[in-house]
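Researcher: Quick test of sequence recovery. Tokens follow.
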């Protein structure tokens, strides 16, 4: 069973809601010369490009067995080497470090070489199309991969007004699957289990376990 969304929202809505983006219509983004990411639903700069949020089948593929973690927090030495990248991406996209660690744990078990049977790559298991949309030129580079996954989580969090459960469901199954489910978690056992695992790990990392 998933945790009640009301309980999850109490802990996370403030962290996941900013910076705000429109929840409907197209979203555009670009990275300026200082590395700052800009988002808009009314682009007024030629550098903006549309972010694809509704690719059928999901922008991030559900990890295969070789890249699926158990729903327990990994020991610190499993992710210490990625901690600086996680901290940077978390600060850049206003996301909790614990959330990025939880997603990374379930997606790849902190293996930067992980690849799914459908071609999702690296620590955050980015599909090639999603990597391109998130300005990731080398999905095997841990820093770029973490940044791309965090960027996509931020877009989804804004799309779902900070609702952690919907954000994770869309990261796993794709926004289109969430839309077809009436804006709720799709009735896909793997997606429901994925959300449960990530939320459990998020709570564990927050508690320092």
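Model:
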């Amino acid at each position: 069973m998933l945790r009640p969304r009301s309980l999850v929202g109490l802990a996370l809505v403030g962290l996941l809601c900013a910076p705000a983006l429109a929840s409907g219509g197209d979203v555009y983004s670009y990275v300026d010369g200082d590395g700052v990411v800009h988002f808009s639903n009314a682009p007024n700069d030629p550098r903006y490009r549309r972010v694809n949020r509704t690719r059928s089948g999901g922008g991030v593929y559900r990890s295969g067995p070789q890249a699926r973690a158990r729903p327990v927090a990994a020991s610190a030495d499993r992710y210490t080497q990625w901690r600086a990248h996680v901290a940077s991406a978390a600060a850049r996209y206003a996301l909790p470090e614990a959330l990025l660690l939880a997603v990374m744990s379930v997606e790849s078990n902190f293996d930067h070489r992980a690849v799914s049977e459908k071609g999702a790559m690296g620590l955050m298991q980015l599909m090639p199309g999603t990597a391109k949309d998130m300005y990731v030129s080398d999905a095997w580079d841990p820093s770029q991969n973490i940044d791309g996954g965090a960027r996509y989580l931020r877009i989804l969090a804004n799309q779902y007004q900070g609702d952690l459960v919907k954000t994770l469901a869309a990261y796993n199954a794709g926004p289109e699957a969430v839309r077809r489910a009436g804006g709720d978690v799709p009735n896909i056992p793997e997606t429901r289990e994925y959300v449960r695992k990530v939320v459990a790990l998020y709570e564990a990392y927050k508690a320092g376990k």
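The two ends are 22 Å apart (CA to CA).
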